[in-house]
Amino acid sequence: MLEDRSCLVSRDYRTESNWAACMSYRLDRIEVQNGKRPLENDEESDQVQCKLQKQSDGFNRSGVALSVGDSSASPDEQAGNQRHAGDNSDSSSLIHSIGRDNSISCLIRCSRSDYGALASLNSSFCSLIRSGELYRLRRQNEVVEHWVYFSCQLLEWEAFDPARRRWMHLPTMNPNECFVYSDKESLAVGTELLVFKKEVLAHVIYRYSLLTNTWSSGMRMNAPRCLFGSASLGEIAILAGGCDSQGKIFSSAELYNSEAGTWKTLPGMNKPRKMCSGVFMDRKFYVIGGIGGAETKLLTCGEEYDLETGTWTEIPNMSPVRTNASRNDMPATSEAPPLVAVVNNELYAADSADMEVRKYDKESKTWATIGRLPERAASMNGWGLAFRACGDRLIVIGGPRAMGEGFIEVNSWVPSEGPPQWNLLGRKRSGSFVYNCAVMGC
Predict the structure, then answer these.
(1) I need a labelling partner for 230 at 20 to 30 A (CA). Which of 169, 222, 277, 343 fits?
(2) What Å distances lie between residue 122 and 69, 118, 137, CA to CA?
(3) Nearby residues of 184 by Cβ (< 8 Å), 6 or more positions away
């Protein structure tokens, strides 16, 4: 019965005295209707389940700004704002009438879109969400929601929830000018979004935390790099290849653990490469294509890294085959890294030139065309087009542009339902293409 509910919250809860130590966590609508905000008065808290669902419906296709805390309220005021909830229950049990374990069982099945409102109920809810404990429990129970994070402006990042078709705005980054006007790589792992690039004298990593809704910097890899291939699996990610600030191409790789915040150097690949792509498939990491060798030519091979044995195996012709002979006249660096994604342990690729979708046969180690990309998915040699796995679906983010005007469209296809039939999930005006894109599943 509880599993069928989107959220279950009892009115019988109290606020702990140390609420001041826990910042409120909420969602603010950019376009607030009727002057109301989530949980604004006593009546709204009576039916939290219904209210959260109504909020979600109202937010559909609307811009939402994520924020932490209320800068206009003192800690005492924050605590006072929570006392309307009642003082007769043990807040450590979360939903007092059903106990802590059952409470968590309900909460891990709520949409994480609702966690901002839930965290504002009392300090126990806030602590559970902001500590990361709830996301660890979701992962253990195989409850995962996938959101798409992308940047179409130099310092701006947005998130898109495919299930609720909701657009959300992240806080603005605050890097220096060199970082702003440089190419970047991005990666989502655990509850973090990482953005990599070189500043004036060194490589830098900016980290967005879903738990605190803030950006920070200062993290460093063992061997700083750019133009690498990467992918994540739960709380870990692997970054392979790339090059340093002098252009030296790497064969090395590193594993990042987002929960421990640690970097571990892995054995080197068989071939150095940059501008490659990475995926996880069958719980192994694959690096595909890229540029390498003395003449910096396109590489058609891939490499498989076995996490259990710690070994790399080269796989010939794993990079998607380029059928258009005219591409041979272009410099290798003019093309985007291979647009590849894995859904249900099957590897797919997008050919932006021929507007085709291909699937990799793991037995014969060959690629076959299975359908078309969305007609309006424009790009420049693959740049400006995002092709990502998002749970059990493939996502294409791109759109038509002309004279500085255009749209960003999010199209979705579920491979298990048959040949490519793209469903438009969202569309918004944008004067630029997609600079970076990553999918966070948690």
Answers:
(1) 169
(2) 13, 8, 20
(3) 195, 196, 197, 435, 436
